[in-house]
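#onboarding

Welcome to the new folks! Below is a worked example of what a typical request in this channel looks like: someone posts a single protein sequence, and someone else replies with the predicted structure as tokens. Don't worry about understanding the tokens yet, we'll cover that in week two.

Example request:
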Amino acid sequence: MMGSRFESKVVLITGATSGIGEAVARRIAAEGGAVVLGARGKEAGDRLAEQIRATGGRALFVPADVTIEADVERLTHAAIAEFGRLDGAFNNAGAINAFGPVQDIDESAWRADLELNLTAVYYGLRHQVPALAATGGGAILNNASNLGTVGMAQVAPYVAAKHGVVGLTKAVALENADQSIRVNAITSGAVDTPAFRNSMGGTPEGEAAIASLHPIARIARPEEIASFCAYLLSDEATFITGAALAIDGGFTAR
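Example response:
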């Protein structure tokens, strides 16, 4: 075990079966926390939960599609039923569905990006906030991406959704500050995940082009993002709320 920052704490994580979500789950479990994993892929979710338990951690996987509110509600209730409380949540599920100039993006693609990247966060907050209030407070972290603070051509629906996550984060932080519920967002740059590699077509040229957008001249490892997320979800960050914090290798510093 790396430490005990999360001893006796229960943290819910969506988009938890690979990439950033998996890295955060492993980090929090290694630091003594119970993790509740939500994702659509049952096989991958069961496998990750079993791997965490095999190393002495506490983990529960619940199949969930975060674009369906009933699934998000069920996920939250499952955390409380299994572990008795909820102390934190990382709303991490997201992906780019629509590529191209805005005039070529049809309404279904627009809605798909907003539902996964923004409405799903609303569903999470809607059910996580009361659960945290019932245990005396806690921390919620939303993954807003660096495109939640800057623009990028050819992915307008995703950019719009992630900007919405930043605004939603700030509003809900203000609504719940007096209940000891902290709500923050990370604005991460490109991260070496299966989803990123798929979006680049798996080509070294595509990956190099994205890496070159970061002044640090590379993309992040999931573990680098996870260490920052664990800090923000822990009691070491109790004076941070309503913030959108960059962990992007200098992408937004230009």
